[in-house]
Structures are given as C-alpha cells and as structure tokens.
Amino acid sequence: MSFFERLAGRIEEVDSVVCVGLDPDPSRIPEHLRDRDLPRWAFNRRIIDATHSHAAAYKPNAAFYEDPDGWRALTETIAYAHGKDVPVILDAKRADIGNTARQYAKLVDPDHSHSADAITVNPYMGRDSLEPFLLQEGIGVFVLCRTSNPGGSDLQDLELASGEAVYERVAALCDLWNANGNVGLVVGATAPEEIEELREQVPDLPFLVPGVGSQGGDAEAAVEFGLSEGVGVVNSSRGIIFAGEQDSERRSGIDGESDDFAKAAGEAAKRLKKRLNRYR
Ligand SMILES: O=c1ccn([C@@H]2O[C@H](COP(=O)(O)O)[C@@H](O)[C@H]2O)c(=O)[nH]1
Hints:
Family: Belongs to the OMP decarboxylase family. Type 2 subfamily.
Structural class: alpha/beta
Number of helices: 12
Helix content: 40-55%
Strand content: 5-15%
Keywords: Decarboxylase, Lyase, Pyrimidine biosynthesis
Bound molecules: the ligand O=c1ccn([C@@H]2O[C@H](COP(=O)(O)O)[C@@H](O)[C@H]2O)c(=O)[nH]1
EC number: 4.1.1.23
CATH class: Alpha Beta
CATH architecture: Alpha-Beta Barrel
Order of helices and strands: HEHEHEHEHEHHEHEHEHHH
Pathway: Pyrimidine metabolism; UMP biosynthesis via de novo pathway; UMP from orotate: step 2/2
Active site: 93 (proton donor)
C-alpha cells in the first residue's frame, strides 16, 4: 500500500486532517519529566496517548532529536506512534549528492516500526539528490515548495526567465517526479494565495501544510486547497504540544507533577480537528 493510501485510510478512520508536530523543545518539557532517562520520549509518549485519536499523522522535526539520546527518543516515539496506527512524517528536509542521499533515504522505511513512513526533502540540489527517496514506492516524499517562514519568499518567489516563480517550477518538477505516486508538497499556511494557485497547478499532489497555530497561518485555505481528493495534512506543533502553557489553571501540570499538559494537548488537537473539519 502506498503512503498516501495509508494516510487516506487514517484520515477517514479518525475523521481528521490534523498532523501533530512533535517538536519537544527540552526547555519547555515539564519539570517532572526532565530527570527521566529520555525526557523527550517521556514527553512524546504522553502527548501521543492524549492526541492519537485526533491525529492523521505525527511529524517529529529532526532538529529536536539530533544528538545520541535524541535519536533514541525519536525511534521510541516513532514505534509508539505506529503502535497507535498513526503514520509518521519525519521533517528532516534532507537531500544531497546521490551517494549521500542513499544513506539519508534509509531514514524512511515503511517496513520497519522504528522508522518513519514519509520524509520532507529539499529540492535545491535537483532530481538526482532526491532520487533515492523517489524510488521508494512505499514512502511519502514531501518536497519543500513554498515554505511558511517570512524568508520563504526570498528565493521561492523569484521569477524565472520562463515567467514562473521558483516555487511554481518546483511544483511542476514534482509533478514529473511523481511516477511512483509518492510525492507531496510542503506549502505553508502563511501563504494562502500560493496554496490556492498551487492546488490549481498540481491537482494530484497532496500537501503537508505547516504554519497554522503559532505562526498564524490561514486554516481555511490550508484545508480548502491543501487536500487532493481529501488527502493531505495540516500541521500544528507548538500550538498543540505546549497548549497547556497558555492555561494558567493548568500551570501546575507543567510546573508540578501532573500530566495535565498532555490533557491540554489532547484538547487542542481536538479543537483544531473540529476547526479544520468545518472546511473539508
Ligand atoms: O515551511 C515550513 C516547513 C516546515 N515547518 C516545520 O513545521 C513545524 C511548525 O511548527 P509550529 O510550532 O506549528 O509553528 C516546525 O517543525 C517547523 O520546522 C514549518 O513551520 N514551515
């Protein structure tokens, strides 16, 4: 089964397009978990327990795990998410010359429970740098197209001699690179006009849309244009996993010994699911 077929099944099962971002900033992990063997894993496990029934996917960002304990926390997290039947997108933004990209591509293996099912990649080095990912039929490959950060326009909006913007060229190439039906685009919710335009340009590619929640992106556009035949996901990371920080009555869950922070995350995931479902 392809990654996007699996994702479609999960979306239907939980009636949700919410992707929960697992970015466990160590400085924001509740005090009572900080002396655990692997605090990031202890944190993520509680977040997954509280959010999985609203999660179409989880998206750990590799930046929060790139140290020896971090990789252990990440692999435990991925296996646990799989135990709840939730696909995992590793936000790693990788790509390199073919010889190196072949090693990066081992980060994703749908047959291995500790390994992610999909990955984000960077198109800057061109087709050969993505080939080892594209050749794996069973995985999802989300290519950075129009990112959500303020500087996303610096290069991605530049107009080429052909009249296309760089991000439009990326989308056109991704359509060509999608021979195995495993390619999607990363398009930020902070660029709603571009999402709409891209949906028209590449109707068959599912989008991973970050930028709702903490970055203030457009949730309606994210859903209306992010999905292809109902498949695609809208990510929120800090807005869900640190939702308890906003709730003064729940501060005890963060500063004290309770797991109320996870309950707040579960409620935030449910709220986002309901909000996004209004536009599906
Ligand atoms: O264009 C992009 C690509 C990736 N991201 C990543 O998504 C999450 C967003 O986190 P929030 O806390 O919901 O803002 C994070 O891992 C980013 O690195 C993105 O935001 N924009």
